[in-house]
Structures are given as C-alpha cells and as structure tokens.
C-alpha cells in the first residue's frame, strides 16, 4: 500500500510483536522501509505526519479509545485516512458502532464500510475539527 518509496511506522505496545515484524520485514527485504515504534501503555508517543493509519483488531483492548484515536487524528495529514477493523469474535456489532462514534467524536468522518474478511470495518477521513465543533454548536442551539 505504501508503494516503492513509502514508509511504514509500525506501533505496538508489545516489543515481541515488533521483533517478529522486524524479522519478517528483513526476510522480505523491506526492513529499511519500516520504522518500529514501541509505544507506552497510555500514549503513542510519535510525532509524524502520515497519510494513512490502520487500527486493526486492537481498539477494543484500549482503555481510553478517545485518547488513542485523538493521537492518531493529530498524526494524520489534513487529507489523512483511517481504517478501523475489529473481529466480531471480540467485538459485537453494538460495541463496534460505539467505536465508530468515538472516532467521529475526535474528528474523523465515516466515509465507507469496506469489506474486510472476518472483521467489522469502517473507513474514515480526517475531518476539520474546528468546523465540526462549529456545526455541533449550531445544532445544539437549534
């Protein structure tokens, strides 16, 4: 997805998962294109501008989903995209709908419901947060 010149930042709380990814990337000849980042329990701790973020099968494990999604929102370029996918075995349809709502509350706009095998999935774009706040204030006054 990143193309021949793109870079990938892989973020995980578990160092052993990053080590596994590093070994797989080395075998595939792609290690120079992947930056591994060991995050903290309560924050990502990265300052980058990214085009795309993938939150795959893990948001349900995060105690403060709003904070995480807010950090991801902050890291994305103005036209940045987010794909959120969760396995139904861990996340019910109702819980996934709540995760989608949290993403919208931090400034993402739902644009698609792509098919991701064995997952609930939602595609978002980074929305203009100040514009959203203005829209919400106007709606509340009505």
3D architecture notes:
The chain has a four-stranded mixed β-sheet with strand order 3-4-6-5. A two-stranded parallel sheet has the order 1-2. The model is unreliable at 131-142 (pLDDT under 50). It has helices at 15-27, 65-75, 93-106, 129-141; strands spanning 8-12, 34-38, 50-56, 76-86, 108-112, 120-126. The protein is globular. It has four helices and six strands. Helices cover 36% and strands 28% of the residues.
Question: Layout of SSEs?
Answer:
Layout: E1 8-12, H1 15-27, E2 34-38, E3 50-56, H2 65-75, E4 76-86, H3 93-106, E5 108-112, E6 120-126, H4 129-141
Parallel strand pairs: 1-2, 3-4
Antiparallel strand pairs: 4-6, 5-6
Helix pairs in contact: 2-3
What is the first-to-last residue Cα distance?
44 Å
Oligomer: single chain
Report the average pLDDT across residues.
90
Please describe the biggest sheet, giving its number of strands, its sense, and whether it closes into a barrel.
4 strands, mixed
Give the strand line-up of the largest sheet: 3-4-6-5
Compute the CA-based radius of gyration. Answer: 16 Å
Number of strands: 6
